Amino acid sequence: MKLSTIPKNLKLKGRRVLIRLDLNEPIENGKVVNDFRIRRIIPTLQFLVKNGAKIVVISHRGEKEDSLKPIALYLNKFIKVGFVPDVCGSVASDSIKMMADGSIIILENLRKEKGEEKNGLNFAKKLAKFADIYINEAFSVSHRKHASIVLLPKLLPSYAGFLFTEEVTALSRVIKPKQPLLMIMGGAKSETKLPLIKKYLPKASSIFVGGALANSFLKEDGYEIGKSLADKNTKALSPLLKNKKVFLPVDVVVRNGEVKWIDEVLKSECIVDNGPESIFILENMIGKAKTVIVNGPLGIYQDGFGVGTEKLLKILAKSNCDVFIGGGDTVALVSKLKLEKKFSFVSTGGGAMLDFLVNETLPGIKVLSR
Fold it and tell me: Do 72 and 159 belong together in one domain?
């Protein structure tokens, strides 16, 4: 299976290119607060502009009521773009007809149309009429069977973008990693993390479970976790707890900032981060590893408890390991600390990265493969 990438000799001048991006960046008070994904797709847009294409950007943002207009305004800091408050109607159609070679317009949030998430063929056909070529540059949402991901490639000559190809190439290295392999799984979504943990148990030397994910493990292991976020049903974790490769935090930070051993947490307390002793243990594990996979933060980053994850990232940045990082909150901290270039690869995908490592492909990859 070979990914269909953009040919160097592809004639683009005057041709309409429908490019699927992931512009779903966090916005607070109308302003973009993390532009990691935006910065990663600029080289592809610049290539298309340089070669005279008429570039029609499609993307989603949050839910159907959210607009891409603030993103379009922000993009103008990097490259000139226009915004069209329409997805597939006459306003979008008329705007595309008036485009000049080398220009870019961004259509409104795809999720305003039911056909996107419902994978509607009629919706995909309306979008396909806008273009001569389709490019997927949204690896981070290519685990979803949405119309813009899996149907458009069947209706137009289609290619994987530069970043998309880079994601697949880099993450493919993790499938057969340099040994020893250390996995650090954080965040809160056990249903997405457990398949990866189970698949990589045979090939990993150690798997450290942190973040809210660790709360579920601690709960199943009989520890008091108080009011901490955890799964209601944790029985499926029991076999993993018996595996000597799986490690949990030995100390934690509770919401009032106090550091406690895991057997000291009270019913009234909430675990918000890993403690310093757990980070020290992780540092020793990293010193013995050659490959490290990180997905998800060790603390409740969105509430300001990112100290543990920041310390971990700084340790990894100084290591000699191949380090692969994914997950929105983790990547936000990488960006904040300006450490992107210190790691082997920082993925734009969280769930997509996990699914790719488990299944070794994605719905969006399959339709772009020849």
Answer: yes
- What torsion, rounded to 10 degrees, do the Cα atoms 237, 239, 241, 247 define? -90
Coil/strand/helix, residue 82? strand
Band of pLDDT at residue 50, cut at 50, 70 and 90: very high
Q: What is the pLDDT of residue 364?
A: 98
CA dist 322 and 345 (Å) reads 8
Average pLDDT, integer, range 316-328:
95
Residue where a domain terminates, one of 118, 142, 166:
166
- Between CA 334 and CA 343 the distance in angstroms is 10
- pTM of the complete model beyond 0.90: yes
CA–CA distance from 362 to each of 44, 151, 199 (Å)?
Answer: 21, 14, 16
Q: What is the pLDDT of residue 329?
A: 85
pLDDT band at residue 1, thresholds of 50, 70 and 90? low
What would the DSSP string read from start to end of 108-149?
--GGGSHHHHTT-HHHHHHHHTT-SEEEEE-GGGTTS--III
Q: What is the pLDDT of residue 233?
A: 87
Total domains in the fold of the chain: 2
Pairing mode, strands 259-261 and 251-254 = antiparallel
- 63 versus 94: which is more confidently predicted? 94
Phi-psi region of 246 (alpha: psi -120 to 50; beta: other; left: phi over 0): beta
- Output the CA angle 314-315-321, nearest 5 degrees: 115
pLDDT at res. 352: 95
Side chain identity at residue 256, one-letter code: N
> In this structure, what token pair is assigned to residue 42?
């600029």
Are 73 and 154 part of one and the same domain?
A: yes
For residues 296-325, average pLDDT: 95
Shared domain for 193 and 70, answered yes or no, is no
The span from the CA of 19 to the CA of 45, in Å, is 9
Do 205 and 156 share a structural domain? no
Domain range for residue 46?
A: 16-166
Same domain, 82 and 147: yes
8 Å CB contact between 188 and 170: no
